[in-house]
Structures are given as C-alpha cells and as structure tokens.
Amino acid sequence: MRSPIPDFLDATLERHRYDLSGATADYIPDLAAADPTKLAICISTLDGVEYDSGDADFEFSIQSMSKPFIYGIALEALGLPAVLDKVGVEPTGEAFNELSLDKTSGKPLNPMINAGALTVHSLLGGEGATLAERTEIVRAGLSRFAGRQLRVDEHIAAGELQEAYRNIAIANMLRSYGVITDDPDEVVRGYINQCSVLVRVKDLAIMAATLAGGGTNPLTGERVLSPRVNRQVLGVMMTCGMYDAAGDWMTEVGVPAKSGVSGGLFGVLPGQLGMATFSPRLDKHGTSVRGAKIFRSLSADLGLHIMNAPEPARSIIRRDRRFVDAKGDMVRIVSLQGAIQWAGAENVMREITAPDEAVDVFALDMRRVYSINEVARRMVVEALRRLEDEGKRVVLLDPENAMGCSGQDSALPDVEIVDSPKELRDLDLRGLRRVRDDFADQTS
Amino acid sequence: MRSPIPDFLDATLERHRYDLSGATADYIPDLAAADPTKLAICISTLDGVEYDSGDADFEFSIQSMSKPFIYGIALEALGLPAVLDKVGVEPTGEAFNELSLDKTSGKPLNPMINAGALTVHSLLGGEGATLAERTEIVRAGLSRFAGRQLRVDEHIAAGELQEAYRNIAIANMLRSYGVITDDPDEVVRGYINQCSVLVRVKDLAIMAATLAGGGTNPLTGERVLSPRVNRQVLGVMMTCGMYDAAGDWMTEVGVPAKSGVSGGLFGVLPGQLGMATFSPRLDKHGTSVRGAKIFRSLSADLGLHIMNAPEPARSIIRRDRRFVDAKGDMVRIVSLQGAIQWAGAENVMREITAPDEAVDVFALDMRRVYSINEVARRMVVEALRRLEDEGKRVVLLDPENAMGCSGQDSALPDVEIVDSPKELRDLDLRGLRRVRDDFADQTS
Amino acid sequence: MRSPIPDFLDATLERHRYDLSGATADYIPDLAAADPTKLAICISTLDGVEYDSGDADFEFSIQSMSKPFIYGIALEALGLPAVLDKVGVEPTGEAFNELSLDKTSGKPLNPMINAGALTVHSLLGGEGATLAERTEIVRAGLSRFAGRQLRVDEHIAAGELQEAYRNIAIANMLRSYGVITDDPDEVVRGYINQCSVLVRVKDLAIMAATLAGGGTNPLTGERVLSPRVNRQVLGVMMTCGMYDAAGDWMTEVGVPAKSGVSGGLFGVLPGQLGMATFSPRLDKHGTSVRGAKIFRSLSADLGLHIMNAPEPARSIIRRDRRFVDAKGDMVRIVSLQGAIQWAGAENVMREITAPDEAVDVFALDMRRVYSINEVARRMVVEALRRLEDEGKRVVLLDPENAMGCSGQDSALPDVEIVDSPKELRDLDLRGLRRVRDDFADQTS
Amino acid sequence: MRSPIPDFLDATLERHRYDLSGATADYIPDLAAADPTKLAICISTLDGVEYDSGDADFEFSIQSMSKPFIYGIALEALGLPAVLDKVGVEPTGEAFNELSLDKTSGKPLNPMINAGALTVHSLLGGEGATLAERTEIVRAGLSRFAGRQLRVDEHIAAGELQEAYRNIAIANMLRSYGVITDDPDEVVRGYINQCSVLVRVKDLAIMAATLAGGGTNPLTGERVLSPRVNRQVLGVMMTCGMYDAAGDWMTEVGVPAKSGVSGGLFGVLPGQLGMATFSPRLDKHGTSVRGAKIFRSLSADLGLHIMNAPEPARSIIRRDRRFVDAKGDMVRIVSLQGAIQWAGAENVMREITAPDEAVDVFALDMRRVYSINEVARRMVVEALRRLEDEGKRVVLLDPENAMGCSGQDSALPDVEIVDSPKELRDLDLRGLRRVRDDFADQTS
C-alpha cells in the first residue's frame, strides 16, 4: 500500500506549482540563472525517514540557510559567552543586507543578518585561522548536520565574490568597529564559501530534523549540537530567522525557519520533524515565494504551529486503586500512562502527596509511561522519597526502567523495583493475591 | 504528605528576595508608592490547580499585562482581518512608550506596544461604543480569563489619567493618522481603565493557563478564545511581548510572556502551565527585576523552554504481531500507545502502509493511545481506508473511541469497531482464539 | 514713469499662474476650502517700500510662518540660554509633523518643527501664563513685526482645534518628557491661536524686511529684535526653515525662508529685502508650490542668493596722496570710500600701517564712506592710535562723523577732527595750501 | 608701524593655547602621532594678503577639508546635474562616518559625508579613469585653489590605507547600490590620496579666500570655480559642512566651514575673507577643539556672522538736485554712492521713476559708485530706458564706466555718457553753467 503522505505532498506542490510571482535573486549570476520552475519539498521525521516530492535531488547553494547551523557550530566550539560577546540575539526590523549594528557597540544585532553571520564565521577556528581552515570547518560542520559529505561549489563562490560588495562593506565596517579582528577580505571569502555549500531539500530536511531532535542527527545518530546550544539556535531562528516578516511568520506559520536567496527554505518543528522546500523565485524579503506558501499550507493542514495547544490529553493517571493485603496493610497502586513532563509530574505528585494516612504500601505502575523528562523524573522521585520518609513501603512496577532507578539510587534507597504484576503479587503483600485478577483485568 | 512543589517555589522566592535592584515605576503615583518588598509567584496547571508562594493574594493593577488578553478579546469579537488591518504583528526594537508606527501607514507595529494596545482597545464594542461600554467589555473579558469577577480600581485609574500625557500623545497621533477613529481622549480613558483592573498573581496564573490550554479557562471550563485566536495571541507574545529584549528572553527563558509596570509578569507554556510573578521594582525596560530572574530560574530548573526538544519518546507502536486465524487468514494486530501528533501518525502510517500482501485482517489496538490530534486522526483514517481499498478486513480495538469513528464514518464505511480483546476474539476470526492467551499476555 | 519692478513682478506671477500642481492642506477645513487660484507676491525694501502684485491684500492665516517671529520674541523675553535649554538648533531630515525630539533629552531639535514651536510658545509669558495672555503676547508681537495691528481669526482657530490631534499628540509627548511644564491642552490652544493670526503678503514682506534689517521694522522704525537675536532667528531659519528640503533650498534659492500650510512663504535677504508670496496649493513638504517656484525664479533673476559673492569692489581706498607742507612736514592724505566692514578696514589698516617714517601728518578723509561697522571702526581707531603712538599728527576729515569720534574719544585723545577740505587746509599745515587745488580737484 | 591684526591673532591664539581638551584622531597612525601642541591661524583677504600667527608653515594632511574643493572641481568638470544625480545636498544628523544613504536610492545625502565624498571622487576623470589620473586631478585641482603646487604625502596615504576599513565599507556599499560604478578599492585609494594632500593654514586660508571671492584665487587671479558652482559649494558647506553640529555652528559662528581630522579647519566669509586654523586635538565630532573655539571668538570679535545685518547704510542717493538750464529745460542730476545691489537699485529706481513731468534732462552721477552688481545694473538701465521712452534726455556721468555702458549699448541707444562734471557742463545744457559752482561744491 502506498503511504498517503507522498500523495499529500504531491498535491501540495501541484497546488502551488503555477504561482509565478517573485523573481530569482539577480545579484549573483548563478542564482539569477537558476531554473525558476524547479520545485521540491522534503519532510524528515526524527528517526530519519524522508518524504519528498518534486525535484528533491536537485542541488543548490545553501546561502543564508547556513547561518543557524554555523551559529550552532560556533557556539559549540567557543561557548555561548564568547559568541554572545560578539553577536546579539535581538531581532531587527531591517532587511537582511543592512548593517543592523548596535548603535553603541557596533555589535551585530543577531546571527541571522549578514553582519552577524560574517562575525560568527570569523570566529570559526579561532584567531588566525586561515581561509582554508574556516572553509573546512564549515563544510565538515554542515556535513554533520546533513549526514553526508557536502561540498563547496567553487563556481558559485567565484561568482558571488565578483559581486560581494555588500558583504565586503559589512565586513569592513565590522572590522572598523573591532567586531571582526581578522582580515575582512578573508572573512568574506570564507563566508561566501559557506554560502556556496551545495545541498538538496533532502539534506536540508535532515539538517532541520537534527535541530528538531535536540541536536542529534536522525540518520547518523551523531549528536551535532548539545541541547543547550540547539535550544539557542532555535530560539534565535524563532525571533530573527525571517528578518522583517518575523511577526507575520510566527503568527501564521509558527515554526522557526530560515530561507536562502537560492530559493531554499527550511523549518523546524521541535520534537516532530524537519522540513524543507526549494523554489528559486523570491519575494521582496528574499524568501522563496512558493516555499513560504507551501509552509503556510502545511502549517495549517498538518497543525504544525508551535503555539498550537496539544489536544486535551487523557489524564496521565490511568488507574488509582486501593486494596487490603493479607497482612491487613492498605496497598495503593497508581498506574501512569503517556509522556510525562512537568505538568504530568505535577499531576502525579498532587495525587500521591494528598494526605493519606491509611496507605501502608504505595505502588507506582510505570508500564504505560512511554517517556518522562528529567524534571518530571526528579519530581516523581522526590514524591516517592517523601512517602518513604513518612514510613510507607514504596514499590515501583517499571519493567522498562523508565524511572532510571536502580537499587543503588541514593534518592530512593528503600524503593522496591519489580518488573511485572506477577512480581508485585509475589512481594509479601499477602492478601494482594485476592485482588490480582481485578488488577490484571484493569491493566490489560 | 506535603507536595514538594510549594517548597520549591518558596525556595525560589527566597533565593531572589534580597535582590533590591531596579525601582518602582515613578510616573504613576500609585505605582511609585507600591511596597517594593512584595514578592509572589503562582503556577497554575491546565486543570486549574494553583501552586503559590509569597504575597499571592496581594492585588495590583494589571497594566500592560492586559494587552494580550484584550487583543484576544478583540480578535474574537471582530475577526482577525479587521484587527490586522489596524495593528500589525511585527516586533520593534523600540521601547514600549515610543510610537512605533509603520512609517507609511501609521499603523502600530504590534498590539503589545502602547500604540497597538490603544488601537485594539478603540476597536472594542465597535464604532461609537461609549467609554462605559468599552470598560465593561474589558472588565468582563479579563474576568473570563481569570475565572472570577475582576474590578477596575478607580483610584489608580484617576491617578494614571493625571499623568497620561504619553498615552494621550499616542492616541492623538493615531487619530491624526486615522488609525483610531473615535475620540482619542475617550480611548485613553478606557485604556487606563483597562490597565487599572486589579489582579493577583493567582488570577494571572489562571489567565496564563487559559492561554496555555488553548483558550479554555481551567477553572470554569469556559472557552474564552478559539484555538486560532489563542495561537495568534501566543505568537504575538512570543515575538513582541518582551519589547526590546525579546531575543534575549526567547533564547534564555523561552516562554511567551508579558510584563506590566505594576510589577507583574506572566508566562505561558502551551500545553503545560501558566505562571505569574509579582515584584514591583522594574528594570530599564519596565519589567520586574525579580520577576524576570525568577522566570529565568524556573525555565532552567523546570525545563520550560518551548524550544526544548522533548525527551526521546518510546515508539508510538507498542506491539506489531501476526497470527493465522482458523480460516487460515493472516491477522495483523498493531498496538499503539501515547499521544499521537503528526510525527506519531507518520510512524504508524509508515508501518501499516508497508507492502504486505500476506495480511488479510488488520487490527489496530488504540487502547493505550491517550491523545490523538485531528491531523494524526485523519492520517490514520486515510491509512485504514487504503487498507480497505486493498481488500483487507480492518478492525479497530478502540474502547474509549479515541479515533472518534462510528459505523457511519463515511471515510471508513466497513471498519469493524470493538471494545475489548474479547470482542476482537469473538469476531469470526476463527483460529485467532488460538493466539488469545499470548495476545492477552502481551497487552496486559 | 512706471517703475519696472511691478511689471517684473506681474510677469513673474503670470509665468507661474497656470501651474496647478499641489493641493491645499486637507486637514484644516478653512485651509482645505481656500481658493487655490489666489496668487500674490510682495517685496519690501529695508526702508519699508513695498512692491506687490496679485492678491496682495488677501488675508490668510500665518500658520508655521509665525514660528521664527515667535522664536525671536521668546528669545528677547527670556534670553538665549533659557530658550536653548528647551529647544535645540539642529536641523532634522524629518517632516514637520514628526516628533523630532532628541533621543536622550526629549528636547525638540529646533524651533521650526511643531514640537519646537509648541515648546517655544509654552515659554511665552513665563510659567503660569494663561491662554489669553499667551495669545495676546503672540498677537502683539507679530503686530510689531508687521507694523500694524493683526488679529486672530477665531473661526480658523476653532476649525484647527477640531483636528489638532497631531499637535495635541506632540504637546502631550513633550509634557511627558518635562519639556513643556504647563497644561499641554492650553499650549496647543495658544499655539493654534498663534497659527490663526491673519496676514497679507504685504504684512509678511514687512515682517521679513524687519529680519532683513537686523530687527528694526522698516515701517515703524521700532527695534523689534536685538541684532544678536535677529541673527539667531535667521541662522535657525537658514538651517531648519525648509524642513527636509533644506539643502536643496539653500543651494538653489539661498535665502533663509519659512512656509506655512495656508500657502504663504516668506524669505529674508539680510541687508536688502523681505519678500513673501501666497498660493494655497502645497507640495508634499507642505510648502506652496507656486510660491517656491517664484522664489527660485526671483533668486536667479535678482541674484538674491546669500552665497553670491559680491561683485569685485573698487578699492575702499580712493586716493592716497603725499604733500610737503610749509613747515616741511610730510603730510599724507588717505581718502576712503564705500561701506567698510572687516575686509575694508583690513585694507585701510594695511596701507596706513606700512612702515612710513617720512610721514609727519596723517589725514584720513572719510567723506565718501557711507557705512562702517563696529569692528571696522575699532580697527581704524586702533590704527590711528598707533600712528599717534609713533608721534605722528593725525587728522580726521569726517564731516558726517562716520567714525563716531569726538574730542573726548579716549582711544584717540589727540586726533584732530575737521569737517571740510577747507578746514584741513586751515590747520596750520603750512605749505599745504600749495597743494590745495590739486587736492580739491582729486577729491571733487 | 605694526598692524594690529597680527597682534590680535597672536592674542587670540594665546587665549586658547592651553585648552588641552580633545584628542588626536586615533585611527590613522600619522594623525595619532601628530604633535598636539601645534597651533596656527591664518586669515587671507580677497586680494591675497595673509595674516597668520603660530605654526602657520606647518604642513598637515588636508583630510575632509578637501571635500568642498573636490566637489567644486567635479561640478565644474561634469556639470551640476550629473553630480546631483549621484549625490544629494541634504544635511544629515548622523556622524560623518555613517553611511547616510538615501533609504530608497542609496544615494549619499550630501558631498560632505564620506559616502558623498567617495562618490564625488569616483566621478573625477570620467568612467574608467585610473587611480593615477584621479589622484593627479585632485592634486592639481587643490593646487589651483591654494595657488601653489601641493603634493600627496605617500606615507600618510599608506598609513590610512592600512586602516581604511570604514571607507572600504562605504565604497563597497555604494558599489552595491550602483552609486559608484568603478572598482571600490581604486576609489578608496584615490580618495585616501585626496585626503593625504599636504597643506598649511596659509594654503587653506587662500583656498578659503578663493571661495570667498566667488571662485577666483586671490593670489594667482585664476578663476577656479564659476560663480554658480562656487555658490553651490558654499551652500552645501553651510548646510552640511559641520556634520551634526550644523545648527549650532551656523547660529553661533555663522560662516560656512569645513574641518578635517588632521586638526585643520577653514571658514569662508563671502566677499570678505578666508580663514583657517590648525590644532590636532579633536572633539567627538572630529572637529579641532581649539580651532572651533578660535572660530567662535573671531566670529564674535570680528562680526563675521553671515547673518549679521549690515550697519544701516547711508542712502545710496547722495544728492538729487534740479536746475533750469539756459534753454529753460529742467535738468535733474541724481548722484549715487556706494555698492549697489538689488536693494540699492530699487532705491534709485524708485526715485527716478517717480512721476516727474517737469524734468527734461536726467543726469545720473555714478562717480561715487564703487560697485554695482549685474541685477542692479540691469534695473538702472531699464529705468533709464523708460525715461528715454518718455522723451527725456538722459546723461550718464560715469568716468570709471561702472555701468558698463557704451555708445553701442542696445538698451540705451541714446544715452549720453560723460566723464566729468566739466563735460556735463559742456553739453549744450545751456544755463547749466549758472549752477555750476553750486554743483561742483556739492559734489566735491
């Protein structure tokens, strides 16, 4: 059976195929000459499955879409403070090719404008890095995001260098403010190499999925960015990624995204997917016309907006039963389900911390919990610890070790961990046997 | 047993209590006279449970924190186009009291700056609404967010009116551009009434939780905003809520938020919680110093940043088994678990649409699915429909009707819906009886 | 005989009469309703003779043309420092109705923009002055410039007040910055009264001629502004008078000027004339279209540009003769001519301070000097003093007392002052009689 | 006898010598290393006499002071429209090193900012001019203003080129907008050569005097700029010369001026003098601290402000007498004096065009007129022509041919021109002899 997803993507492309508005970038020969009929889309899941439609294997230069990735690479290499000291994170209403430097410090307002991206590039490899070194850091870094070896298109780079007046202007202005300390000419050459790395929408979708997955490449499994840096990159894309249409984009589309003048556009839906389109005709902001429209369609059709409230969830607490065991002890068994973050953990904690003098044995059934984050885990541990402090016997039914507890867990020294209802029954919870079938039924 | 959450909030407040930096707003007498030692926090869950610490019952004026709520109310009443025609959604690097009008149209850049908020206020009640009518729309609307009847503090309003030169300036400038069409003086009076509505951090937390829950008040269950409007409000808060420190806030804290010069500050973590703080001393941006620091602490401690990638989830597919039934038909039973959004549905679809000539009967076990959103539901329906088209028999084990299917579902006319494994067995899947115990065990 | 000047003015008006471009101001009812065919010009000499053509007796409101005059009145009343403390003198590229406040201090950039003019108006009469008092100061002050009693048109003022949103906005913004300390509403009302004073081009030409003549009204002979204040007003008009077209105006037309949205326009050529036009249709800067074109014509035709270098002057030294008198003393007689400023005085000084041991008697013939300014006078006095110090006898032939010397002049205690060549001959310059005829001839 | 002018200049320098505020320009090695104690002044008269004090022979680089001169050279070579098409004439509040380009066209706002000066430089020699050609045009052109051969200091130029990041930035930005069409690097090199031409205050004073004299070098007598271009240069200096302190400078000092970061500063008082100072310590605007203070002193002390109204002049009409000649004809003799511009000519015209049926012969005595400009000349000619039209006999007593009339003057075909009172008497104005002595006396 054919998956309906490719059909859906095909249909989406067709809906926008004959929109001829916009024009290819005119200031770079290779971009001006791009075939404006090319149209492609690719969506990558967090486990690296890709759905594509159209000219998904067509290669084009990455251009400004390199900015968030190289920002991440620089943050990893140099640390947040060193980079923030040089480039801010504030949005600017100005177009991407204006200077947008802080009036006082001359510091670029953010890394998504050219001034910021040139500065970030200049930091690669540390002071004194050569053009070749910086170019290789860029190429190798972008390749790690893409999960395959990318390459610089020397012809495109040569063409851009011919017309790089604006970037030369910006780099020299930055040098005059002391923001860039190396030779501005070398920085521009390196940055143009960065912009000239060739990608396909398939690569961009994987690169986006790497950000969506918290920094881990879904194809290679490599951790490219740490969670903190990954969050920083997404935060900056969210506020500064779409230049002067940021507000419109974030209300209408609602995914952190980045476009390039080659016609590429990619977006990140954290925890779900990476997505990319290609269509060379640009609007006045330099963003692909059909690409942006496809993103709008998909955001609406697939409910991708990050501000969409999730559907009302069933309670994280699936069952909450009490039994008297053979010894006459009151046994309480709370069964959890789903993904537990702060809100879920709060829900659990609220239930299990309600004053309950009668209970002697507290059992937490984690079998249907399919994820729990660190904060939630710590909250549940703390709740169990408090129950122990109150003198209760605590049992954890956690065959897949969702809680990550072991007998050595210092926080919960006395917790008893079992792998199945049977084991639970086998604890000397005498009399519990009596409720066994009922329990089994409920949980089956 | 005492919940650790209040302890944690108490500890957080104590950590920041002796930070004396900043100053109370000096241009409004009642604000200048505010007790700067006041300190409070409240977190509300999506089911309306509130955790608070400090002066959580202390009342203060809502000030600019009214802006997103009244924006939502105006959007509901007038529709998006009518409001977007008057007020943009683009961020501005300028301070909140500057004009920030679009150079060409005179339209305020966004509804979070005073020019935008005054314009939004002027739209309430339609052309010709009186001051009293607008004030009541505001009071009643904010009350619906708070889940209790709020009131305007006339004394504060009178004091602000005395010093309302800047708002009078802005309203008149807007009137001169034709953005406001009513009497600017009336608009300012109404807006000051809006700013003078009294709230407690407890109210703000519920108001924030209403936004976090997609527009539904967790206390009253009332749907205050439609999902589309709710998303618009959050989108604008995200890009424009923190004025000229937007980028820093969204990278560091990562929750849409809004502050008021009275010292209040609230934030929204969609799908999880609403949160509010109160501390009157302000930084140069007019944001509560301790409030902002507490938000930074909690964002880090509780992992609240919206760009945090969720923990790697276990697969949405819990089991995928095949049996041969008594008739010799190949039966496949796929059991799902957790919350299913696009990414999960894609995962399911991928599995069930893989070419599989051998299967005659396909059963989908939805019992452990605790939420599924509309897009995912449609995707699964489409996959099942295609299986039917291929001539397979399709059975849905969905006792809680997560899929929302009925026999009349036009998309799936032939699907058989059962409520329990027993029913599944009772279908004339002869021979399936043979695998029954195994199946029961696996799924229990 | 008819003077050719009126013919020339008539011809100039005719050349521009059928230029229908521009539009009357649309935001004030009385201005919008103005008869756009009206066309007038008037030039006033420094002795108050007026040449006019067209609708020269038509009355219209003075509007922004009041700004430089009221600036002068405020400077006289309060002194330069008090006014400069509130309003700057820097040009702004922005349109007249923008705020144009200094980013830091909130101080209006100059008194020719509305923010500055409102602030200047607010200073009139000192703190606590009433609306009526300020209005009368304005009316009386403008009347002194015009040389006749002007009046406020209450109907125009009432109409402007209806639509005064922008000025109310500006005044309130200024109040919020503490630049204006009185009630902003009263200030706006007073300023609108100021703008509603009725004038004719005839009045404006006299008002302009008052500035051209150093502050003295050519009709009444009243000194309205001191020279220092008059210079300040002209300096500000020169850099800030024509808003955002200042550079174009000062290179093309080259006279300090000011326009009003009623259609009036006046210009000042210091030392020569005042000039005014009236034509209600305005360009996008709010300046009369035909008025500006007429100014351009006249500047070119009449050589009015203040940066026109004067024609090469004949030497200020008309004759320099030496004679031996009867006693055998060498007598030197230097005859000056024309208007002497610094450059002329330098020329004189250079000649008379050249080492010249032979001369015993030095006579300076001032009869053909028709003006000498203070600096030049002091320079000549100093030169003569030095001659005396060298032991020479100094005689001043100055029948009209151009040098303002008397026997009591402390700087020149010993100078001998004579009224005619005959007196000079009658001094006991014996032997001079011998050269008398020659001298008489030369100087006749 | 020693002239008091040098003493005065010496005293002025001494008054400011120990003002140590400001700092030498730090971004160009040779400027940073400049001896900050150097102090010089020079004033040049319009006939090329120079008064100097201090280190008047010290050579320094001309820097930005080259801008107005090269602007003039470009205007002469290419015509106003070609240059205005590339560079505007509007002032900007921004500092000299900001881009200050027109938002829409990318055109530099004026030729006094670096963007404008680079563009003007790029126009020299036409499209395709080489660096060497442009440098020689600059060197030769500045030399014509200075009246001696100047030279480029290669060492300074090499030093500036090392740190020319900002100019490279600006030139490349201009190239990206198509304002500059040549290689931006070559333009910067040429412009730095322009800035590195060596001058002394003595040279600058002569250069300034060339502008003050309408474009004619007072030393060499060469006409360097046409009057129209000269006026354009001065107009732009007046509105844009002093960057963001333009308003303050024009109200306080009141002479068009230009400073350079080397510490030089020159000013132009049209029709009177050129003036220059040198002192390397600069204020935050990049203007010499002591230089600016000396200009303020001198403007006040010497009454140099261009908006100073001239002292009230004696009437241009010295005598107006009537006689009856021997034939019984009424003869009117009007004697003029001084410098006649429009205002004077108007005065004359007014008198001689008053209805006066009785007069048969009209004589105009021009002997005491020491200058008359073209407009005034045309006005007087027109008045005389009209008298002739009325049938009057017109006689011009104009021994120095101030009116530039000859027998062939087509406008005045019948005027009789005489050289002396005697000639006037000798015309067959019979009976005039009778009044001869009286006339002779009055005019002697």
UniProtKB/TrEMBL annotation, chains A, B, C, D:
This protein's record includes keyword Disulfide bond: no
UniProt-listed InterPro entries: Beta-lactam/transpept-like, Glutaminase, STAS_dom, STAS_dom_sf
Enzymatic reactions: L-glutamine + H2O = L-glutamate + NH4(+)
UniProtKB keywords: Acetylation, Hydrolase
EC number: 3.5.1.2
This protein's record includes keyword Acetylation: yes
Catalytic EC class: hydrolase
Occurrences of domain STAS (ranges): 331-396
Binding locations of substrate: S64, N114, E160, N167, Y191, Y243, V261
Pfam families xrefs: Glutaminase (PF04960)
Quaternary state and interactors: Homotetramer.
Protein family: Belongs to the glutaminase family.
PANTHER family: GLUTAMINASE (PTHR12544)
UniProt xrefs under NCBIfam families: Gln_ase (TIGR03814), PRK00971.1-4 (NF002134)
Stated name of the protein: Glutaminase
